[in-house]
Automatic annotation (TrEMBL):
Transport keyword on record: no
Protein name according to UniProt: Transaldolase
GO molecular function: aldehyde-lyase activity
InterPro entries to which the protein is assigned, alphabetical: Aldolase_TIM, TAL/FSA, TSA/FSA_arc/bac
GO biological process, one term: carbohydrate metabolic process
Top-rank taxon: Bacteria
Pfam families per record: TAL_FSA
Record keywords, A-Z: Schiff base
Organism field: Polyangium fumosum
Amino acid sequence: MLFLDSSDPKEIKDIFAWGVIAGVTTNPLILAREAGAADLEERIRAVVAASKGPVSVELVSETEGAMLEEAHRYHAWAPSRIVIKVPFGEAGLRVTHALTTQGIETNVTCTMSFNQAYLAALAGGTYVSIFSGRVRDMGYDVRPVIAETRAQLDREKLGAKIIVGSIRHILDVNEALAHGAHVVTVPPAILRKMLHNPKTDETIREFNAAWASRAK
Ligand SMILES: O=C[C@H](O)COP(=O)(O)O
């Protein structure tokens, strides 16, 4: 399954019309780049209106109380759609556990290892985000991280779904899915690259040219 890693309502609306995307993920870096000084609530409401399915909005507070207050504020903007993206850590696990008990969906984010992803799933995370590109930036292979996490979720029948993010190349998508990701969240530019294959373009041109020049 694919989500779109974007906070650009126009891009989101355009790509959702392809019928291939099941949700949206944002993070503070994406929002700072794409929305800048725009009002966060207005922007997230526009993202919700432009899409279908879960929309992840990430917490920027760093203490448990402030994180919970921030989470409730975001959740109220669209209770049936907004998933609270919780940065991994001790406070993050407490917040995830508390929100889960309150029936609020979470996406525990910034996990780079099996151990972290497993703890996030045990805490009750609805989703656990593993960062493909950033794990590779450290010189590690992300494929066993995804595969071992998926195997453990299945063995213990934990409800968490793995989202693989930090996608930098088309091949990251193939590998994440092949190693057990439930969802890959793809930036619009990479998704557009997935459309193209020169042999496809050549074949369509050949077919259309044959049809146009057929004997009449
Ligand atoms: O929030 C999740 C993003 O997919 C992270 O992507 P990035 O490593 O390219 O910033």
